[in-house]
Design a protein that fits this description.
This protein is mainly α. It has helices at residues 2-26, 36-47, 66-76, 88-99, 110-119, 126-142, 145-155, 165-173, 182-190, 205-218; strands at 55-56, 157-159, 162-163. A 3-stranded mixed sheet has the order 1-3-2, with helices on one face. The mean pLDDT is 90.
Length: 226
Amino acid sequence: MIRKIFRWIWKAILWFFALSILSVIIFKWVPIPFTPLMITRIIEFKVAGGDAIYSHKWVPLEEISPNLQKAVIASEDGNFLEHSGFDFKAMQKAFKSNSKGKKLKGGSTISQQTAKNVFLWQGRSYIRKGLEAYFTVLIEIIWGKERIMEVYLNSIEMGNGVYGAQEAARHWYTTTAKDLTPREAAGIAAILPNPRKFKASNSSAYTERRKEKIMKIMRQIGKIKY
């Protein structure tokens, strides 16, 4: 009986690795139609008794302004082009800040956020963090930086029911992702910590200060080379 259980567990592990690697390989080229977070949000809207708000349109990276690419690097992950998926210095800094009782900070890279958004459920647990690290390694090896950025900018939440750069540009500025100005791009990047609370346009004083800070860092970033 015990042997059968171990055999079943071993087969389950092998199937998990096979399917996870296969899915990452497939999504290296295939646009990702939806993510677990999108499904979760739709369910939340329905449970609350409202209409499901879902706005998402995939566009290739060539149709997303370099301004937005620079803005999310400046805002979310300054070492994105250099690290291998994990920014250990940022993680250490976040840990020290949190241990001192200051406002909780993450330290997650764009690669980690992409792995979490595309392949995993929301929440905090050691199991999920372990799987996040596993998928981060996979996408760094199989996808590379350019594809990670493309998936990230097409899948993350950028407003209440708004996902991806194209719909965020339309929702906040009635433009396209390709035509975002530096300030508009900074506006979208500024709300990413809580896109359902903050507004990229007609922003609060706090968000405006974040925009200015992001734009200042953007000017220091040269041409992005993946």
